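Holo prediction — flavin-adenine dinucleotide.
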Amino acid sequence: MINKLPANIDEMMQPGVLCKDGFLGADKRLVKDIIEEDLATIKKLGMSVDEISDRMTELTAKGSDLMEREVSVENRYSIKVRDDRGPAPDPFGGSPQRKGDTLLKDYKTGKAVVWNDLTIHMIREYGFFGGRGEKYRIEPDVLINILGLSK
Amino acid sequence: MYKIIVNNGEQEYTSEGDESVLAALARNDVVLPSACGGRGRCGMCRIRVFSGGSAVTELEEKKLTTEQLENKWRLGCQTMITDDISIELPGQLIGSAQYECTVEDIEDLTYDIKGVRFRMPEGKSIEFKAGQYMQITAPAYGKNKKSVYRAYSIASSPSEKDHLDFCIRKVPDGMVTTYVHEHLNVGDKATLTGPYGDFYLRESNREIIFIAGGSGLSPVQSIVLDMIDKKINNRKVNFFFGACTKEDLYYVEKFRALEKEHSWLHYIPALSNETDVGENCEEGLITDVVDRYYPEFTNHEAYLCGSPGMIGACLKVLTAKGLDESLIFYDKFS
Ligand SMILES: Cc1cc2nc3c(=O)[nH]c(=O)nc-3n(C[C@H](O)[C@H](O)[C@H](O)COP(=O)(O)OP(=O)(O)OC[C@H]3O[C@@H](n4cnc5c(N)ncnc54)[C@H](O)[C@@H]3O)c2cc1C
Ligand code: FES
């Protein structure tokens, strides 16, 4: 986890800077406050960002390299991984990630969510799940439940 | 006034300072590739700096390896002009330029891929190697307060010097593809820069394997058309095009007609999620189809174009059967 956020991080997250709708949705909080609050939730649930992001990576891998074919996984999920090209820049300044959303339907909770390598990278490296109302944000407790990680 | 000395004095520009190398070059119509608008986030604007310029930034230390930094690589957008500066631009950037093109035609190739044809500005022509890409700019629109540009492989032949064709796939909520798919109209002007990239046909007598998926068809089409124009007919070509369903296939008739006319060309579409693939089409993942086709590689070279996942999967299959990595080519940024 990085100790110091880039000084311009809140600006980098605005719509139209690095991506069309930005990373914050309707959230008016500062990035550092969003991260702090989500990390506290995760801690309360006895989880770590590594466990969450590792599981997201594991599920993504199960649907990858299939020319976008939707697959059934673990008798619980259907997963489809898009094959998009080009680098998705990391607003925190880390390595760019590959584009291509993972669309996951969880039959157990009835929820459908979407993430990509950048989402996973930002959770793993910075504890950033996105601002509220942002397309890629999944509330940490909901995500933990969908990933089947609830303790 | 400071000097920007390019490639040992091949070119020289000036700058008053207080700007990045990327910005200074752009003023002189030399546009470095970028996918982050010069914010030090994409790592695409790499140049070598031999002397002068601001110190290496923290962002550059993250984006570039120790070896790259030792070899004088910098990010053009993070290197500020503070004094005379001597730089090296990758060879492919020499000759790249900015063009105000006109959209001549837009056609639906599939439900999410559009074919877009641009006309070069009056009196201007473009030189490129088949397989290279251009950057297409979306102007400020909606919440995008600044113009942004992205890389798109040229689908037309280099012999067509007054037009450029592209196949552009819609990415959900993508900045540039949303613009192209929802706002761009025939007759509109659009800024294109380039050409860039080192994905092009190598000279040899080896058999050629092209493997592409989705919008990755473009550079392969450009290379095939170029081979036809240049009458390169002594090399056997197998073009494997992978898609999910029939709805994802495009230019099938075009490639069928080309293979009928040119016996060295064989077009093999493959569908990974279709129960009845129909005639002259393979069933399964493109990697499995390629695997089935070749018991071994004896005198081959392969060109891959698609998502990083597809490229990774193809690399595994090809190298497992003995094709040396030095004979496998792909765009490293894709
Ligand atoms: C050499 C090269 C050649 C290429 N050739 C072609 C071609 O011929 N045809 C073609 O169609 N494409 C091509 N591409 C891809 C193209 O350059 C673009 O990357 C692609 O079209 C998407 O651009 P965009 O601006 O629409 O999407 P962008 O806005 O750049 O990206 C959208 C994606 O970013 C991610 N994202 C956005 N917002 C968020 C968020 N808040 N949180 C997390 N993730 C987020 C998601 O994955 C989303 O799908 C090529 C790329 C390269 C490098
Ligand atoms: S333009 Fe993206 S890192 Fe320089």
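READOUT: Chain B touches chain A through 50 residues (CB under 8 Å).
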